[in-house]
Write a structure and sequence with these properties.
about 450 residues; 20 helices; globular; alpha+beta; about 10% strand; 2-methylcitrate dehydratase PrpD; single chain; five-stranded mixed β-sheet; two-stranded antiparallel ribbon; 60s Ribosomal Protein L30, Chain: A
Length: about 450
């Protein structure tokens, strides 16, 4: 059964019909994912992904963020999506249990560069990708019992946006979405939680799959009807074009798994209310939900092990008031952080389990050497749409992540271009502003 509502939405969406708030939110999402991509440039996974993509897919017209090479759209999408998620600072959506921006943006951007589309056309396709991708994630988790990664559903959103960019016919669009779903990674996500690696959330493979699906369909490759052809999709797609799911995105203030972040907020509250010295702490108890409790508690040996960790980010924030790129890349063996990790315990709360995945909740208790006890309220992960970062906090995050790589002047220029992207004659103007600062 063809989903005519979905098909019509993908081809009829127009920025001219959007309200000011939705456009603002879309640009904030774009700024956040670009900043995360830039910040992920100097990671080991990004270098490996770049070398692999260059050797396997070759040169083309699509840019790599802060690398001098231009690759084919598929290669560029693979590399940029690796960077976008590598520090685990990218946007997310509670009901998808994943990260739409990192899998959707790089695919659409790579195709937009190759086709040299306008900023307005790019932004429209990005919106389409988010709206279709988020609904695909919600639907996939409804239809499939086990927890699977972003790459399994994000590829469908990437294919939707790319199909709009490359002018895929309506008949071939159905094939593109079906190919994306069929070839998308269907990964055992919780095994990667327990054994963190560069696989992470399957995002780079899902991104590569999504853009490949659209190009394959354009060439006549056929696919199965996608999950949007199922009866369960009707209710979820009938509000396309009238209700925008990007309003529900969350933005991460800390470079670690979302499931660890409510505990950080609890520590933040306690530190704000009392004078707390790391040396005076006897015990920290994190009361949280099951998925959070399954995060690693061991000393991390890699940045992935630091990000998919419950104890490391909590200890890092307690010591340094920050969990950013520096902590998860350069301070894995910091003795102050490791000493605090030894003092942390975790308890699972059934009430917090009932709230997940709609909300990620935790509570923290800190006991000091003199017997004093400090307890936080029940804390939600900061940045959720119902516990949001302010516009100013989102802006601060952008410059926090970009300035160390491109300098303050270029960062401000880039920020201005992003917030005026619909006026750009070519989307390449966005990457041209980075050209003079590319790192060798």
């Amino acid at each position: 059964m063809k989903n005519e509502i979905l098909t019509n939405y993908i081809y009829s969406e127009s920025l001219d019909m959007l309200d000011i708030i939705t456009i603002k939110l879309l640009k904030e999402a774009l700024a956040d994912i670009i900043a995360c991509t830039i910040a992920g440039r100097n990671t080991k996974a990004a270098k490996i992904a770049k070398d692999f993509a260059q050797s396997q897919w070759g040169t083309g017209k699509s840019s790599l963020f802060l690398f001098p090479e231009n690759l084919t759209p598929v290669g560029a999408a693979f590399v940029n999506s690796t960077m976008a998620n590598e520090l685990d600072l990218d946007d997310g959506h509670r009901l998808t249990k994943g990260h739409p921006g990192a899998v959707i943006f790089p695919a659409i951007f790579a195709a937009a560069e190759e086709y040299n589309v306008s900023g307005k056309n790019f932004l429209t396709a990005l919106l389409v990708g988010y709206e279709v991708g988020i609904r695909a994630g919600i639907l996939a988790h409804k239809l499939r019992p086990e927890y699977h990664c972003t790459g399994s559903w994000g590829s469908i959103g990437a294919a939707a946006g790319v199909s709009r960019i490359i002018g895929l016919s309506k008949d071939k669009l159905d094939h593109a979405l079906g190919i994306a779903e069929y070839f998308g990674t269907y990964s055992p996500m919780m095994r990667c939680i327990e054994f963190p690696s560069m696989l992470k959330d399957g995002i780079n493979w899902g991104c590569m799959t999504g853009i490949s699906a659209s190009y394959l369909a354009k060439g006549g490759y056929t696919g199965i009807p996608s999950l949007f052809s199922m009866e369960e999709a009707v209710e979820l797609t009938k509000d396309l074009g009238t209700y925008y799911r990007i309003r529900e995105l969350y933005y991460k203030p800390h470079a670690c798994c979302r499931w660890a972040q409510p505990a950080i907020e609890g520590i933040k509250v306690i530190k704000a209310e009392c004078s707390l010295s790391a040396a005076n702490i006897k015990k920290i108890i994190i009361c949280t939900f099951t998925e959070s409790a399954r995060l690693s508690k061991k000393y991390p040996k890699t940045t992935e092990e630091a990000q998919y960790n419950l104890f490391f980010p909590a200890a890092a924030y307690l010591v340094y008031d920050e969990v950013g790129p520096k902590e998860v890349l350069d301070q894995l063996d910091d003795p102050l952080i490791l000493k605090i990790m030894e003092k942390i315990e975790v308890i699972i709360d059934s009430e917090f389990n009932e709230e997940f995945p709609k909300k990620a909740l935790s509570r923290v208790k800190i006991i000091t050497n003199d017997g004093s006890v400090y307890q936080s309220p029940v804390m939600q992960a900061k940045g959720d749409y119902d516990f949001p970062l302010t516009a100013e906090e989102k802006k601060e995050k952008f410059f926090w992540l970009t300035t160390p790589h491109i300098g303050e002047r270029v960062a401000y220029r880039l920020f201005d271009l992003i917030h005026n992207v619909e006026s750009l004659k070519s989307i390449r103007e966005l990457t041209e502003v980075l050209a003079s600062t590319k790192e060798e």
